[in-house]
Amino acid sequence: ETGVTQTPRHLVMGMTNKKSLKCEQHLGHNAMYWYKQSAKKPLELMFVYSLEERVENNSVPSRFSPECPNSSHLFLHLHTLQPEDSALYLCASSQSDLRSSAMNTEAFFGQGTRLTVV
Amino acid sequence: RKEVEQDPGPFNVPEGATVAFNCTYSNSASQSFFWYRQDCRKEPKLLMSVYSSGNEDGRFTAQLNRASQYISLLIRDSKLSDSATYLCVFLDSNYQLIWGAGTKLIIKP
What we know:
Chain A is 0% helix and 54% strand. With 118 residues, chain A is mainly beta.
């Protein structure tokens, strides 16, 4: 069983729908991340949470809204998405916020949610 | 110029051969470097960190060339199971992981 689990694995939604992606980590990590991976493009960092506090928001459109209720759970709320938002959304966690120690920089990923916006 | 550049491949390599690929980075202040591996339709997983002095883990050797701003990954005696996409990553001055788009490797029997 992976230390980071994401649900759902696949999601098809219309542009007017509202849905949420869920991520849970069982590793006792303090930092969690949302990444977007589009075909043949590098991973794009969307949000970073450290100890449940958002520390980074890379100018992501407001139609993506993160929520971190505790250090083990992370959500990504989606509403009025566009077809170009179709991608693989990956959640990751690391032992600590990368700013505190570069030695703990290994990121553990969930298997991702493959999102298709129609 | 992209922050991280990788040859997308694919590299088609016969089983047992040695293969190497590089990754160039533009941020000279980068301190930490990594190679991740991503299998088809799976999540990325850390393969190895890249140390200034170079490091080896079994059949895999990673090296850092700061003067030319690139890191390399060498795979010896390649196996079919080495087929994957290899992602180059570095930690920038804002402590963000910056990712390359990956190099696809296909090992053929």
